[in-house]
Amino acid sequence: MSMTDVIFESESLSLELGFLELDPNDHRSTRWSVRLSIKHSTGCFSYLATDVWFDTDVWDEFTTGLSSQEPKILRLVDMSENFRFSSSELQHPLKPQFKYLNQSFHKG
């Protein structure tokens, strides 16, 4: 389990995840800040949160996928399942999907 901050940037997407704390009562729960910006032809969608909790197994799978050279589906879902980030490929152009509660925002 690596609790390092993650910064991912492409031409149309910026995703920053900052480690804040490990739950002292549940070592599988980690708190993160999330900053997401998706640029599109008419502007930019931005999301900022400072209280997003991820299970360590979900986090490890996401960061392993980020560092992999193989194209695959990346998913990052918080423990409440309110925050969802997924990308269908790790090749350009990146086609991310961001979902918060019942709202979906697509780029591509």
Strand fraction equals over 45%
Number of strands: 8
The helical percent reads 10-25%
Principal-axes shape call:
globular
Q: pLDDT average, as an integer?
A: 80
Unreliably modeled segments: 100-108
Note the main sheet: 4 strands, antiparallel
User: From N to C, what is the helix and strand string?
Assistant: EEEEHEEEE
Instruction: Work out the radius of gyration.
Output: 14 Å
CA distance, first residue to last residue:
32 Å
Number of helices: 1
Strand order of the largest sheet: 1-2-3-4
Helix-and-strand structural type: mainly beta
Structural features, described:
This protein is mostly beta strands. The chain has one helix and eight strands; from the N terminus they run ββββαββββ. Strand 2 (13-22) and strand 3 (29-40) form a beta hairpin. It has one helix spanning 56-67; strands at residues 6-9, 13-22, 29-40, 43-55, 74-77, 83-87, 96-100, 103-106. It starts with 5 loop residues before the first strand and ends with a strand. Mean pLDDT is 80; it is low at 100-108. 11% of the residues lie in helices and 53% in strands.
